[in-house]
Amino acid sequence: MAAGSFEGQYVWSPAADDRALARACMDVRAGRYLSAHEALKETREDFDLRAHRSLVLASEAADSDLAERWLAEEPGPEAALLWARVAMLRALRMADAGDGRQGALTRIAWTACERAAELLPGDPTPWVAQLALTRLDRPRDPAPQGLLTAPRGPWGLFFHLLRLDPWHREAHHRFLSFFFARHGGSPGASGDVAAFLSQRAPGTSPLRLLPLVALVEGYDASALLADRTWELPQWISTATGVHHTWFPQVAEYRFTPVLDLSYLAHALYMAKREFEAREVLTAMGPYAARMPWSSFGDPVEQLTRARRSCGLPVPYGI
Questions:
Q1: What b/e readout covers 169-200, taking b as 16+ CB neighbours within 10 angstroms?
Q2: Rounded to the nearest 5°, which phi and psi values hold at 141?
Q3: How far is CA 194 from CA 91, 97, 168, 233, 236, in A?
Q4: Total-model pTM
Q5: Which residue in 81, 121, 287, 306 is deepest, having the highest Cβ count within 10 Å?
Q6: What is the rounded distance in angstroms from the CA atom of residue 137 to the CA atom of residue 131?
């Protein structure tokens, strides 16, 4: 991985340094799907990359008829997957907007996911899309032993996904988000699940970041000393532990894991560990993600403040 150097401006593209994905996004915006097919087909053995590319491409295609047109003109596993992801995004967006069409769109999305799963049975990505949809119908499977809050949720579907890919990044994040308070869960449940999932993951896995994701999700600016939470020994240990075990692996990544690096950089910065935060921010090069910075204010201002505190260059005029 070589993210490149910071040259005075942030690059907010979710494609980051994945050139094939960036080209495919441009083509999707222009109404073409050939490069999207190529970008997805080459990921059939790399499930995390397949999940990421399909989600980014779906976000580009969700407001057009490209996914439907591709599926009608050249049906296949990649076309079916993009359609499943687009249908998933549309259902979630309608639900978040309180739109009455959400129920019908959820059924369409669920069927699209089933079709994609049938075409490529070993691919966990359609099941991840189904997992994302569970926050709309709130399944109540009993939790396994080992969780203090024993939160009910889509445990059965999640365990099926683990059989396909035990450390699938998006699957874990989607599952955790089911327990977020804004989706009908609670801070206690999300923190409990995050700890449970991260503790069972390898030390070198980005899933070790899950407690930091839950911590940001539960942030309440009105709480007393809310911004000092990251300075507590528990969270300093979590952030520095991930920096010690996972961060060295990033150099071997094919593409820059911008979102994961953002959460780590933020946690280290909030914990007053500027030296480590500087290393992480430098590894990101010019690339930036709006989360977790947007949970604390304008993401440009928040990221710039962190970079300046770490002695790194910031965009001109900010």
A1: bbbbbbbbbbbbeebebebebbbbbbbbbbee
A2: -65, 145
A3: 25, 27, 14, 18, 16
A4: 0.96
A5: 81
A6: 11
**Tens of pLDDT along 110-127?**
999 999 999 999 999 999
Q: Which long-range contacts (CB under 8 A, 24 or more apart) does 152-155 make?
A: 153/178, 153/179, 153/185, 153/193, 154/178
Length of the chain: 318
Buried b / exposed e over 112-126, threshold 16 CB at 10 Å, is: bbebbbebbeebbbb
Buried b (16+ CB within 10 A) or exposed e, 223-252: eeeeeebbeeeebbebbbebbeebbeebee
- In the block, tokens 């480590």 appear at 276
Token reading at 28: 């999707």
Report the alpha-carbon distance of residue 222 to residue 239 in Å, rounded.
24
CA-based angle 185:62:216, to the nearest 5? 30
Torsion of CA 150, 152, 157, 158, to 10 degrees: -40
DSSP-derived 3-state class of residue 131? helix
pLDDT at site 64: 97
